[in-house]
């Protein structure tokens, strides 16, 4: 019989071997041989920064049965993880450069899982011209968890932030809100209709608005943005609180997709506005820049809709108005951490 110490020594050796083969086989190809990543064979990644540039960093951590389910599949899990990180960079107006990956494994993580996970990352990183620069790989217990730290760059002092909205600024939102929430409601195995597929796609494959964020900065259209991650109301409220302003929002101006509108008699549309995970941008625009928005929307081929304005008060709240300008009570703002 092997002594306990020997069993442990063997276990550690195998684990290490395993970890290295995962890194070599699956993670190294994601570095694109960029020298920042040092071929994933050093303790750190490193890169030079320019004097007039600011580095932007953001991290997301997702945990099994809290943020994702095993049955979602490796492709969807990886996509959601990287895309939500990219969306944080988009909301800052920066350009993403590279990311670091925190990876957990257990018996469930087999060759198939790894291949799907990494090809999903590859597809997205190619689209956004980013690469993997390092990370850590650990053995998990029952529950898997994954994390990405993403780095971006922007010209100094140009970052979009939540506290930069001004009294009288107009409020715009990109794309539609609520579709991801409807995707979340659906059961992956029971998807049949075109609309259900559309919602699911919006849930698992949100489009981080990187180009929009960059152009808001470059064309000096906005100084304040946030992405819709926790809920439209919850995220907008962050701007209100940080900028110390009320947001007056017109219900009939909020953009919902055609498939979502079809469900209005079946669902409480307030749920759509607190559901989150759309990863669209809410941003403020000075009145004088209103005309630039139309051009920008055309250029990017996305919808940018005016939904209300900011007003100076002491309450820093959202005033949600119906077609008759009557205030609607907001029952729920969003996902609470
Ligand atoms: P350390 O013991 O210093 O934490 P590791 O043995 O964990 O180093 O990792 C070795 C190398 O592999 C490092 O360059 C690290 O960045 C890289 N690496 C480990 N796990 C991952 C991962 N999940 N994604 C990308 N790179 C990774
Ligand atoms: Mg490590």
How would you portray this structure in words?
The chain is built from ten helices and eleven strands. The mean pLDDT is 93. It is α+β, with helices and mostly antiparallel strands and 337 residues long. It has a seven-stranded mixed beta sheet with strand order 6-8-5-9-7-10-11. Strands 1-4-2-3 form a four-stranded mixed beta sheet. The protein has helices at residues 4-27, 74-92, 111-128, 179-185, 194-204, 210-218, 232-243, 258-261, 269-274, 290-300; strands at 53-63, 95-105, 131-139, 145-155, 170-174, 225-227, 245-250, 281-285, 304-312, 318-321, 327-328. It binds adenosine-5'-diphosphate and magnesium ion. Adenosine-5'-diphosphate is lined by residues 23, 27, 40-43, 101, 103, 132, 134-137. The site of adenosine-5'-diphosphate has 13 residues, from α1, β2 and β3.
Largest sheet descriptor:
7 strands, mixed
Tell me the distance between the termini.
49 Å
Q: How many strands appear in the DSSP assignment?
A: 11
- SS strand fraction: 15-25%
Order of helices and strands: HEHEHEEEHHHEHEHHEHEEE
Structural class: alpha+beta
Low-confidence stretches: none
Silhouette = globular
């Amino acid at each position: 019989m092997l002594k306990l110490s020997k069993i442990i020594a063997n276990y550690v050796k195998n684990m290490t071997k395993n970890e290295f083969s995962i890194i070599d086989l699956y993670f190294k190809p994601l570095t694109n041989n960029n020298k920042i990543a040092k071929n994933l064979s050093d303790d750190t990644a490193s890169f030079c920064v320019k004097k007039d540039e600011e580095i932007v960093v953001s991290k997301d951590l997702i945990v099994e049965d809290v943020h994702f389910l095993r049955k979602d599949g490796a492709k969807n899990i990886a996509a959601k993880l990287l895309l939500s990180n990219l969306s944080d960079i988009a909301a800052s107006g920066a350009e993403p450069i590279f990311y670091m990956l925190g990876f957990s494994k257990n018996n469930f993580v087999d060759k198939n899982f790894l291949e799907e996970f990494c090809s999903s990352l590859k597809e997205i990183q190619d689209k956004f011209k980013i690469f993997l620069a390092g990370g850590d790989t650990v053995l998990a217990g029952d529950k898997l968890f994954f994390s990405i730290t993403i780095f971006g760059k922007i010209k100094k002092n140009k970052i979009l932030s939540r506290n930069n909205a001004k009294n009288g600024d107009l409020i715009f939102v990109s794309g539609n809100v609520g579709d991801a929430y409807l995707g979340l409601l659906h059961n992956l195995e029971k998807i049949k209709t075109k609309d259900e597929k559309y919602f699911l796609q919006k849930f698992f494959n949100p489009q981080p608005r990187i180009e929009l964020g960059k152009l808001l900065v470059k064309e000096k259209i906005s100084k304040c943005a946030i992405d819709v991650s926790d809920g439209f109301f919850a995220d907008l409220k962050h701007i209100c609180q940080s900028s110390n302003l009320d947001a007056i929002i017109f219900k009939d101006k909020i953009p919902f997709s055609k498939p979502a509108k079809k469900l209005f008699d079946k669902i409480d549309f307030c749920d759509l506005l607190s559901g989150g995970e759309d990863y669209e941008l809410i941003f403020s625009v000075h009145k004088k820049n209103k005309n630039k928005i139309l051009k920008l929307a055309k250029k990017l081929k996305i919808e940018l809709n005016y939904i209300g304005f900011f007003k100076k008060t002491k309450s820093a709240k959202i005033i949600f108005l119906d077609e008759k300008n009557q205030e609607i009570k907001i029952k729920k703002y969003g996902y609470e951490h």
